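Data card: per-record layout.
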Amino acid sequence: MNKNWRIPKQRLFGSYCIGQHFCQHGNDYGILYHRFFLPITLDYEDAGEFTFKQKLIKAIKINLITYAIFGVLGIAFTIYLLVEKSFTFQALLAFTVVLSNALGLLIVTFLLGYAIVAIPKQFFRESNHQIQVNLKYHSINKTKQLLEQESLDLDDLLIEILSYESKYKYNEEYQPYIQKILQLFTKEQIDSAKLSRLRSKNDQGLEDMNLDKFAEIHKRAKELSYDCVRNTKKLEILTQQALFIEDIINCDMRGKKITSAIRPERAGCFGNFIDKVQYYWYVKFWRVIMYSAAIIFICLGALITLSEIAIFGNLKFNVFIYFVNDEEEFFAVQILVLIPLLYVLYCVQYGLLSIRLNRYGFYDYGFTDGPSLIFSATFISRIAFPLAFNFFWMFNESDADIANVVGNFNFDQYLTEFKLAFPILLVILIICNIFDIYDKLLGALGFQRFQFEIGYADEHTEEGQEYVQKNRLEQSKAQAPRLDLKQPFL
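The structure for this 490-residue chain is written out next.
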């Protein structure tokens, strides 16, 4: 390749080597962090035990199996190196780094394969208010059904806990644990469970309890109580969003404002100005902006896909290496290089926010619990260095200063056959997402997506629409006595 077209390392990549100590030991700390510390912290936070010591012992026991598997693999590879008479500590460490970064790069590939297609599709959906309101109806209906089931499960669990409270009424060892579990619930929930228990009054057949069984009940209680609070708030927010989108669809075209019977009407010059700005933003400009963003992201996604295929397939159509040349201004170089980097980071973040494993994952509206945050942190810690390597490879800079931090990520030394799997996997995942079979693939692997696809918009929307209309009627009645009160500018 013509050297005049290459980006000078000292201008583009020199700032990544920060601190000699971190450069020598950064990846070692990273492996210890996401292989040992984060898994133990996750299981500690998720445990149902009642004291610090009990939680820590439980977390270590759960992770001993994982440590044993890694230990066996390490011993097996050490034996292989001894048989081949090529055993060195550097070779063993290099192989460990390659495996760690390969796993991180595999996660990045999964996230990119999803987000490169999902992001433009989301912006296309955002451009159509009718599709958006249908998605809200569907989400409201699903959340309402989930909340009803969780309320039933919570009531059954509370009845079980109250039964054990009665059974061990005079047991000084178990009563503190039972009371701690009951503190997770509201007074209304406990009173409702007491009434249900009085009607059934079936305390027969209760098994004898011990500390481990109370810990299991405590864990279930934590999950159920938090899920109920989360979905209650989610249902409320989704309903308000659906109401607002309905107001946009039914806006006053003549008056050029978005009016609603459930909100006070703005008054005054500034209030009229706010109405006009809101009208033009959501009715006139929103569609154009969302469509434009979708087209831009389609182009960026295509460039990223081609560059990823070129990196691992040793092909010659990596366009990013031609973006800048050696004569470009410093700030122009930084901006042009920043564009693909920011989009890759956005894709990875979008995937992390959308994919769940069991009940772990990010939740909207600030209701992500502690175990989910720690679980997501393990993903982020595993993809940090692979993302950096991937970024440098896009610009054909495999020997930049990042190599001083984690060493040279040399696929050819250990994983030559595995090298071609990444572009093939990326293309397969992109095709799956284009044809809306990505959810089924992740479901088979134990993952669940949070975002709804456009195909879901026409399913079960009637129930959600009825719920929104009922809520609108209730809010209109509550607002009716205050119709004569107008907001001065908000």
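Known properties of this structure: Confidence is low (pLDDT under 50) at residues 1-27, 449-457, 483-490. The longest strand covers residues 355-357.

See the next section for split statistics.
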